[in-house]
Amino acid sequence: MASERITIEVGDREVSLSSPNRVIWPESGITKRELAEYFLAVAEPFLRANGHRPVSLERFPDTVDGERFFSKNPPRGAPDYVHEVMCTYNSGRRHPQVVLDEAAAIVWAVQMNTVVFHPWASLANDTDNPVELRIDLDPQPGTDFADAAAVAPALREVLREAGLEPWLKTSGNRGIHVFCPIEPTHEFLDVRHAVIAAGRELARRLPDAVTMDWWKEERGARIFVDFNQANRDRTMAGAYSPRALPSATVATPITWDELADGVDPTAFTVRTVPERLAAIGDPWEGLQRSPGRIDTLLQWWQRDLEAGLGELPFPPEFPKMPGEPPRVQPSRAKKD
């Protein structure tokens, strides 16, 4: 028996949505249709932050509590308004990635059971050179969002000293994502080194609160600056993307004033963010107007190299990189 199906009008396009009453978030009862309506409400700022670039789709055939998988290239039968771009990965392999350029394409992704959108830091017209420097302030066990919020202003000072202007969003969970618009003049490895330089400087200033240690056993109850999120093909939930968490929280752009006033990241959900947008607008509307350069951070990276601070570990799926230390857990290395 055929499933229920509705047609959603998006501008001059019609997008078919099957099983519109299927519940995606059991705890809150949010349905597939509600998710599509959410994206219609936030389409403009969502596309401003995530459109016109490679994006990976995190898809859930049932609920957010069930099976999930990632898809990168448009499946067969995708409509012609869902675009793609060829990308080169760290292995050297090339593969097409989805590119979302209009609201109808977002609703199509919802039809394909997408819940979380993971955009690259680069645009489709130049996939190798990021337009954003992204820093993930990741709370470790014993810390939470408030601890990340406490160190974010110090990171802002570091980045401003390097000539960059940082913008904020909640991760949709416990962390904070700090984005700096940059000119697309350097490839991903350079930007990763710039993030490491900023993170090291922050850790020097707040050694009891911040860590750059890749191995979890060494981090302690501190905020981890996840430098590997700056790698090619490593992504985080995009601005205005829902998260696959019970309360349907959304990765939401916020202002520095909101952070200082004790903003509650759990208040931003699929049901509340459209009203927030209508009331205050998009805090990220001007993010890309004045991109900076990473030259100063790369000078700091070189300074630290000369001081004996070398490359840091890459994720396990990456090829061995020049100058990288052994990918061996410190406690295991001592035993060996």
Question: Would you give an account of this structure?
Answer:
By secondary structure, this protein is α+β, with helices and mostly antiparallel strands. Helix content is 28%, strand content 21%. It has helices at 32-50, 103-111, 145-161, 188-205, 256-260, 273-280, 295-306, 330-335; strands at 5-10, 13-18, 23-25, 30-31, 54-59, 69-71, 83-88, 94-99, 114-119, 132-139, 167-170, 176-181, 210-211, 223-225, 253-254. A six-stranded mixed β-sheet has the order 13-14-10-12-11-15. Strand 11 (167-170) and strand 12 form a beta hairpin. It is globular. The model has no long low-confidence stretch (mean pLDDT 95).
Topology (SSEs and partners):
Layout: E1 5-10, E2 13-18, E3 23-25, E4 30-31, H1 32-50, E5 54-59, E6 69-71, E7 83-88, E8 94-99, H2 103-111, E9 114-119, E10 132-139, H3 145-161, E11 167-170, E12 176-181, H4 188-205, E13 210-211, E14 223-225, E15 253-254, H5 256-260, H6 273-280, H7 295-306, H8 330-335
Please state roughly what percent of the residues sit in beta strands, choosing from under 5%, 5-15%, 15-25%, 25-35%, 35-45% or over 45%. Answer: 15-25%
Strand order of the main beta sheet, please? Answer: 13-14-10-12-11-15
Query: What's the β-strand tally?
Result: 15
Helix/strand structural class: alpha+beta
Radius of gyration: 20 Å
